[in-house]
Amino acid sequence: MAKKKTTQSDVSDIQIGIPQADRQSIAEGLSKLLADSYSLFLMTHNFHWNVTGPQFNSLHLMFETQYTELFTAVDEVAERIRSLGEPAPASFSKFTALASFTIPDEALSANDMIAHLVKGQEAVVRTARALFPVAEKANDQPTLDLLTRRMELHEKNAWMLRALLA
């Protein structure tokens, strides 16, 4: 018996064990996480460039470490969205619409920057945590793993930043 040749149409429908509706719901939640993460990346990079004062060197380096990690994270989140078969949002207007917090426009003191970063870190955690039950219900272990790693990192960052304000 001859084997059927695989064609492009045979693989155009995603068959990863997660129904399309669930993949779409998860991707919507990941899009919010992407928007929050990218907004936090942008805010942290801004503060890295503009921080002043006696803590300049330590904050400048800390912010650089955090925005560098976020740069990698946004790619990972976007690629997970694409793996689920959905388009990843990729414009400032979409990120602004999806993000759960806004980036301050005004010049801030170092302590105010830290306070905004604590709130941003915690916003990312809340966004990830809100998606967890949706991914869990769909038995989507890769997304659950991604969410767990993001929550752990952002909770730790929030703790470290908050300690600077004590």
Provide the CATH superfamily: Ferritin, core subunit, four-helix bundle
State Rg.
19 Å
Give a quick account of the main beta sheet: strands, pairing sense, barrel closure.
none
Oligomeric state of this protein: single chain
Structural class: mainly alpha
Estimate the mean pLDDT confidence.
Answer: 94
- Give the overall silhouette: elongated
Number of strand segments = 0
Number of separate structural domains: 1
CATH class: Mainly Alpha
Entry summary:
This protein has 6 helices and no strands.
3D structure, described in words:
The chain is mainly alpha-helical. It is built from six helices and no strands. The protein has a single domain (18-165), classed as Ferritin, core subunit, four-helix bundle (Ferritin), CATH 1.20.1260. Helix content is 74%, strand content 0%. It is elongated. 34% of the residues are buried. InterPro entries: DPS_DNA-bd, DPS_DNA-bd_CS, Ferritin-like, Ferritin-like_SF, Ferritin_DPS_dom.
